[in-house]
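A quick aside before the break. I want you to see a complete sequence-to-structure record at least once, exactly as it would be stored in a machine-readable document. Don't worry about memorizing anything.
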Amino acid sequence: MESDIKEVERKLKILRERKIDRMHIDIGDGLFSDLLTIAPADLQQLDLLKMKMDLHLLVDDPTEWVEESVALKPARIIGQIERMGSQKLFLESVERYATGSGLALEINTPIEEIDDDAIKTVKTILLLAVPTGTSGSDFDEKVLSKIRELRKIYQGSILIDGAISKETYKRVMEAGASEAGANSAWWKGEWRK
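That is the input. The structure line, written in tokens, reads:
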């Protein structure tokens, strides 16, 4: 969620020093939400190849960002469905490059918004547990029922993003999530205690 490439470099150095080999980068265009970050093309100048990386596209029409994103060789490209033209086209576009694909839902977007064709093929579904493009927000309890609802119809990876602390991590995993990512809690040192 960074708009300054120098801050990304600083954080990458810390991740490497701590031997963290996986990261999740939020890309925002300022149109989908107020979040305006660096673009995938900006990241090409950095040495990211040793890191397993997710790119989370919080952008207007994520399909238009696929080609620029795959140049970074991410493990997964995850796009928000709310302004996605075609979920199937997005997934096919990502998978054409042998990259893992994912669909993401805002906290108030119902599970039923995932197309039937898409839910059969998507590898990862990301559920936001905070308002889009915010960091340090409070955990929204609604995500727990969404996880349970989704798990009834989907056997793939359910990734939770937003307000993940040690306590909320345990709760989302108990609800049926497969994985969760910490941002502000990790950078504040809560995960290293």
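Two observations worth writing down. Strands lie at 22-28, 52-58, 76-80, 100-105, 124-128, 157-161, 179-181. The helical segments are 5-17, 40-43, 66-70, 87-95, 116-121, 142-153, 166-175, 184-187. We'll return to this after the break.
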